[in-house]
Specification:
By secondary structure, this protein is of the alpha+beta class. It contains eight helices and 17 strands. The two termini are 37 Å apart. Zinc ion (ZN) binds next to loops.
Length: 268
């Protein structure tokens, strides 16, 4: 599935998803500013995104991280645009790891990208300057975001969890670091958070703070129970978080246990 939505006269939301029973399983947002695209959508909508990119003449693509819902169209886009990624992300994009069946279904496959340039420290689009900032915690390839200071904009990718109460985590996530990254984002006093799954969030302070508060509460309680000698399984049962319908199918990539373990043992 593919949808275009103007945010304002500068930014266009470019949404891609896989359809299930007439609905998007989950939208992922790329953002177009003039001819610059931030992230490259999911593989299952690559033909539509590629057609749109040709129509508007996309000539640069800045990738935030290498998760499959952000880089699905990079290979096609590289035929007409320069793809930028962090140096450590380039080998992953050139030789993407196999995903399990569930993730291949939800997002689609990622074709390897042969031509990629190293991400600069900042870049300009028209009169706007975007500083590349690291947003650690969500992805071990060290996700980046793009900060336009004058406008108070941050293209934050997956730095802020989608649910207000994050109850599952990926095996590669450091949830304590995610909280600390959100605190740094709050300090930027943003006007707009351009989230990769929620879309643009205007005046995002409460939106971010709610997510920080929830995870800090779970951390405090988990650590207290752990100090009393409770096992991870017991702590997980204590919270009685409901697993989403798809969790089994992720084969361990997402779990409640990982959220709790990360909150107890990880450091920012
Ligand atoms: Zn991600």
């Amino acid at each position: 599935m593919f949808e275009i939505e103007a945010f304002d006269d500068k930014v266009t939301c470019v949404k891609t998803a896989t359809e299930m029973a007439g609905n998007a399983i989950m939208w992922v947002y790329s953002y177009l500013i003039d001819k610059t695209l931030i992230d490259a959508g999911c593989g299952n909508a690559k033909e539509e995104l590629w057609a749109y990119a040709r129509e508007v003449g996309v000539d640069r693509v800045y990738v935030t991280h290498t998760h499959e819902d952000h880089v699905g169209t990079c290979a096609l886009l590289s035929q007409q645009a320069t793809i930028f990624a962090r140096e450590n992300q380039i080998p992953i994009l050139k030789d993407p790891p196999e995903k399990n069946e569930f993730f291949a279904y939800v997002w689609g496959s990622i074709p390897p990208v042969s031509k990629i340039e190293v991400m600069p420290d900042d870049f300009s689009v028209g009169d706007m300057t975007f500083e590349v900032i690291t947003l650690p915690g969500h992805s071990p390839d060290l996700m980046v975001g793009f900060y336009e200071k004058d406008r108070g904009w941050l293209f934050s990718s997956d730095a802020v969890p989608l649910p207000s109460r994050k109850r599952i985590a990926m095996d590669c996530e450091n949830v304590v670091q995610i909280v600390s990254t959100m605190e740094k984002i709050l300090d930027l006093n943003l006007e707009v958070l351009f989230d990769a799954h929620r879309g643009p969030v205007v005046d995002p302070q409460d939106y971010i703070q709610t997510r920080i508060d929830f995870l800090k509460d779970v951390r405090r309680e988990s650590k207290a129970l752990h100090d009393k000698g409770r096992t991870i399984d017991e702590i997980v049962s204590h919270f009685s978080f409901e697993a989403p319908w798809y969790m089994e199918m992720t084969e361990g990539r997402f779990s409640i246990e990982h959220l709790i373990e990360s909150l107890i043992f990880d450091e920012p």
